[in-house]
Amino acid sequence: MMSMPQSKQTIAVVDDDPGQRQVIENALLQAGYRPISCSTGEEAVEAAGGCHLMLLDVRLPGISGLEALRRIIAEHPSLPVILLTAYIDLKDAVDAIKSGARDYLEKPIDLDELIVAIDDILDSPGRPVGTTGPLETPPWIVAESNAMKQVLSQAARAAKTDAGVLLLGESGVGKDVVATFIHQSSSRADGALVRVNCGALPETLIESELFGHERGAFTGADCLRKGRFEEADGGTIFLDEVGELPLSLQPKLLHILESGTLRRVGGSRELTLDVRVLAATNRPLEEAVKEGAFREDLYYRINVVAIDIPPLRERRDDILPLAERLLAERRLRLSWAAERALVGYDWPGNVRELKNALERASIMVDGSLILPEDLPPQPRNAPPPQPGGSVLVGDMQTIQRHAILEALEKTGGNKTHAAKLLGISRRNLVYKLREYGL
Predict the structure, then answer these.
(1) How far apart are CA 417 and CA 280, in angstroms?
(2) Are residues 215 and 226 in the same domain?
(3) Domains held by the chain: number
(4) Residue 3 lies in a domain
(5) Which residue in 123, 187, 253, 303 is deepest, having the highest Cβ count within 10 Å?
(6) Which pLDDT score, from 0 to 100, does residue 179 have?
(7) What angle is formed at CA 47 by the lines to CA 42 and CA 53, rounded to 5 degrees?
(8) 155 — phi, psi (to 5°)?
(9) Cα dihedral sign, 27-29-33-36
(10) Could you report the average pLDDT of every consecutive run of 10 residues in the chain (438 residues)?
(11) Based on the domain organization, do 360 and 387 belong to the same domain?
(12) Residues whose CB is less than 8 angstroms from the CB of residue 5 and which lie 6 or more positions away in sequence, other chains included
């Protein structure tokens, strides 16, 4: 059953075959869209400013569909274009994508597949990620994996309180993102969120940076300075790498947490503060407590709620959505082989390493389609996912996604042949592609 958009949107149908145009236009009308007709590439260029999406045939009288596409994208870069052709092969598809096409479909057109593709582009340009229960995930967070949804569910519950939260996980997993989510989901959202990396501050300056100082407190203190805790008054302070906080300053932090008061360096007056403390670490603080490098009473004070953020290799369903988000502003997209390389790599540096890899790819890419050779050597040379291997264990959606990507790669993007390889119907494949954001 075809979906019905809530408001009519205009779609330009560009084809020199009037019968083909009529069939497509009838399907669009039935789906609730408003079609307009064009029979040449020149007419398509003229119509581009007055539509929300364009269906563009490659073989046209006058200028070709690919040439029309280049002109349209140059003048209207945000207009989504879907190519329609009976002659397309993988090279044409790559050329079309590099020129700016959003997708391509082969003739004879499967009308259900066509409407699915249009709905996917026009109805859900910023589709919110799936969530468990009533949790609403903000659009700036990627949480396609069950593991990350569980993290956000825990964070949402913690956000309803002022309890101390300790975010655990390897470097680069996104602890700062979860801290921001907790702050914005709390009653303190209108207050400041002050971030402090305890491991990046020199030990000689960290006390003044955190707690402020009075004028004349030490050499060079020629004026009063408020610290980061005062800046966070009424809001939240996020102490990243809290395990690096010098042992000599930990009693002062404990005092703030227990009494809600602070004394600046060189000061004699206690200041009353209302600050919620979030902390993060990539080292086991239990071991630091046993070694005497971290106070046990402070550890329990900041660790009322502990949230462990899994590494990227344990939530592979997030890799491609993260990559797509990072590449969206650059109008770049990944080839199937590049997607497989990203998903197959373990990302020891987690999201931070993924960002760096895509930054490198965006510099090396020729056009708008990222190929494996544009990626750094580590993900490019990673072994492909193997059934039964660590990449594919435990998550059926990940297994299905890998199988679909592999089938599409083997068939050069031909959905009919890919469906036969997978042993499913073409229509089932189309809906799977939409479900997995492919």
Answers:
(1) 49
(2) yes
(3) 3
(4) no
(5) 253
(6) 97
(7) 120
(8) -65, -40
(9) positive
(10) 53 90 87 92 93 92 89 88 70 64 77 82 47 60 88 88 91 96 94 94 87 79 86 96 94 93 87 95 91 93 90 92 89 88 93 96 92 93 57 53 80 79 72 70
(11) yes
(12) 31, 32, 33, 119, 122, 123
Total-model pTM: 0.60
Q: How many angstroms separate the first and last alpha carbons of the chain?
A: 21
Are both 154 and 264 inside the same structural domain?
yes
Residue 229: name the closest of 259, 266, 265, 256 by CA: 256
Coil, strand, or helix at residue 417?
Answer: helix
Model pLDDT, residue 95: 64
Check whether residue 168 and residue 296 sit in a common domain: yes
Note whether 216 and 96 are same-domain residues: no
Residues forming beta bridges with residue 37, ordered by sequence position? 13
For 361-380, b/e burial (b = at least 16 CB within 10 A) is: bbeebeebbbbbebbbeebb
Strand-pair partners of 277: 237
Range of the domain at 244: 146-310
Q: Can you tell me whether residue 362 is helix, strand or coil?
A: helix
pLDDT of residue 393: 39
- 4 falls within a domain: no
Identity of the amino acid at 80: P
Judge whether 262 and 210 are in contact, CB under 8 Å: no
Contacts of 405-414 spanning 24+ positions with Cβ under 8 A: 405/336, 405/339, 405/340, 405/343, 405/438, 406/340, 408/336, 408/438, 409/336, 409/337, 409/340, 412/89, 412/90, 412/93, 413/90, 413/93, 413/104, 413/336, 414/106
Distance (Å, whole) CA 266 – CA 155: 37
Is residue 303 situated within a structural domain?
yes
Interatomic CA distance for residues 268 and 259, integer angstroms: 16
Pairing of strands 271-272, 261-262: antiparallel
CATH number of the domain enclosing 190:
3.40.50.300
According to DSSP, the residues that pair with 85 across neighbouring strands are: 106
